[in-house]
Amino acid sequence: MPKFVSLEEAVSHVQDSVALIVGGFGSYGSPEELLEGLAARYEETGHPKNITAICGISPGDKTESTEPLKGFNIGLNRLRAEGLVDTVMVGNLTDARAIAKAVGDNKIAGYLPPMGVMVNLFRAVAGGRPGLVTRVGLGTFADPRHEGCAVNDRAREKGAIVELMEIDGQEYLFYKGFKPNVCFIRATYADEDGNLSMDHEGLTGAELEIAVATHNNGGIVIAQVEEIVRRGTLHAKNVRIHGKLVDYVVKAQNPDNHRQCYATAKYRPELTGEIRTVAGAVKPLKLSLRKVIARRAAMELRSDVIINVGSGIPSGIGSVAAEEGLGKGMTMSVESGPMGGTIQEGLSFPGVANPEVIFSQTDTIDMYDGGVLDMTFLGAAEIDEKGNVNVSKFAGRCIGAGGFIDISQNTKKVFFMGNFTAGETQIDLTGGGLKIVGDGPNAKFVKEVQQITFSGEYAVKNGQEVMYITERAVFRLTKDGLVLTEIAPGVDLEKDVLGRMEFAPIVSPELKTMDPRLFGEAKMGLAPNSGRN
Ligand SMILES: CC(C)(COP(=O)(O)OP(=O)(O)OC[C@H]1O[C@@H](n2cnc3c(N)ncnc32)[C@H](O)[C@@H]1OP(=O)(O)O)[C@@H](O)C(=O)NCCC(=O)NCCS
Question: Could you tell me the keywords of this UniProt record (predicted)?
């Protein structure tokens, strides 16, 4: 039976040099009060020091704000004081910019495996297995023939966490397991026996796998909850973690430390499936280059498919599809667990309003790795002549891939979407095309990407269909490299396209002009449920 303790007592059980798993996913599910308490203890006593922090996705937000309840003052960022964390092993640090900076400065050793690998490792460790054998990561920076997930010198000095192996003539990666000594997880209710339910949590996460991995390795499971309730009041189906797996329970004293999501202090029942809101008409996006890209990508949508849509420019697809009446029967899935419903944007991402089901992160990733997704639409920071894509290391930041590798390697049709150049541009929408007045300072089509988050070579070998969609040009991946298939009306092939790329793509002999309706104010009027006109 767990002990119900004060915050100070709970965090006193975290010793120097331990491996600590922290639950949560971006803006959701952060065990915020526990993190706050641990940071306060370190400030006061200098302990615990040199810990290894392990997460699927780091809790936090994407900003570098130093205001209360934002950026550097929330989530994993709370552990930023020098000496507290020695090493991180995290699927993505986008939401923990202070920690990402310390990794970039080589102050904290950084291992950044794919997010799906992390949650499946929790499950493997929970099940007493030595690690995880998977194809996920082959050909990317996770592969030991590239960086082996070790993104800085300190990590490289500490040693490898992933090996290449072969089974029946097929290549696989073996990610080594680890021994968690303690974990911080969060739930909504604990009953008097310590059974935990997730009633108000927007995501189910990988909290069960984290708790079992820690418990079965003799570690300490510490849970932060919103409320402690009477024995027998939690329905068995709602109990996610049995009390026998929990060592300490802390009731959050500050409601701001137990928000459903950092985006708002208000609990939103439509994110948990408790209620379904009446969906109003989706407002069409204002015409912009981002909308042009989303429109061109939406033309590829088909009916009755399961799709995953990434953050950034791809998030405009839902709105375009609604405006044009495309993709009837299409189901959206997000790697955080929910399926069906409307994916939220900004800080509310990756929550989903009116979901049809909320899977755990681990179950979702297993489905993705096995090929359940028909299509995915993802952002791109850099693309090179082999069709490799980088989203994990650019603009001086090394943040990891999150679910990007699991999704992009295992989906039949992959669409990368992004601006043709990065930084401030002056591009006029002329009604039926584009006029490029000034381009961004950074090329996105580069000779060689800084880090391989998606391997073009691996995709060709596996027969994936891959397309790269920008506001002014569209490419397809072939075994011979990138083929330019479409350019926008009004742009000059040599000056505005080929002249802005660091390599020469193959120009299709059937080079087409992009549909002029992409660039106009009016609804395109695409044929319902197909995207084709
Ligand atoms: C790559 C990614 C940043 C692109 O974002 P986007 O909003 O679609 O596209 P943008 O072109 O507006 O790029 C976002 C910012 O990155 C900058 N950027 C993009 N590519 C860059 C490059 N090659 N060099 C420098 N800066 C770059 C842009 O200038 C922009 O900066 P700003 O915010 O200061 O304006 C985004 O898709 C991402 O983070 N992807 C990884 C996460 C992911 O896909 N996870 C799995 C599914 S959720």
Answer: Transferase
